[in-house]
Amino acid sequence: MALVWFFIMPLDAKRFGWSPSFPVWLKVLGVVALLPSLFLIYRSTVENTYLSTLVRIQNDRKQKVISTGVYGLVRHPLYLGVLLMLLGAPLLLDSICGLIIGLIGIISLVGRIIGEEKMLVNKLEGYEDYKKKVKNRLIPYVW
After folding, report:
1. Please, what's the largest Cα pairwise distance for the chain?
2. Which residue of 7, 9, 71, 110 has the fewest CB atoms within a 10 Å radius of its CB?
3. Going by C-beta distance under 8 Å and a sequence separation of 6 or more, which residues neighbour residue 113?
4. Mind listing the pLDDT tens digit for each residue in 66-101?
5. Which residues, given as ranges, of the chain have pLDDT below 50?
6. DSSP state string for 81-113
7. What is the pTM assigned to this prediction?
């Protein structure tokens, strides 16, 4: 899905012009979303050396809960960065197709978070306490 999103947006926005031009304020909103997106993705990767594309516990590396830095803001800061990117880039590029694919991606991300959290509570020591300390999964003060 990420590859489809990545290739469809420029085809929509520039090559074929399937979407109309967005107002400037929407493009500015896209930039505003992309800046924290890049920060969150970078910091999540740096701060959590256990980060993996696979949902798994790394017992061989003695995985532990990371609760500092951006992980003190929400429990899944990488996913928050991805969410902001999935919304910000299509707004900046004038791509309704990118927005639709991004929304499908966000729904998938929410499903992944729900499943991942069940596994983390059951298999990662200290995660239940972390959930009490950092209340929100994805969006500060919301969810």
Report:
1. 51
2. 7
3. 76, 79, 137, 138
4. 999 999 999 999 999 999 999 999 999 999 999 999
5. none
6. HHHHHHHHHHHHHT-HHHHHHHHHHHHHHHHHH
7. 0.91
Both structure tokens of 53: 């594309």
Of 86, 82, 95, 76, give the one whose Cα is nearest residue 140: 76
Helices 24-47 + 77-93 axis angle, to 10: 150
Rounded distance between C-alpha atoms, residue 58 and residue 79, angstroms: 19
Residue 115: φ, ψ to 5°: -65, -40
Q: Map tokens 């298999």 to a residue.
A: 123
Calculate the alpha carbon distances from 27 to 8, 30, 93 in Å.
18, 5, 7
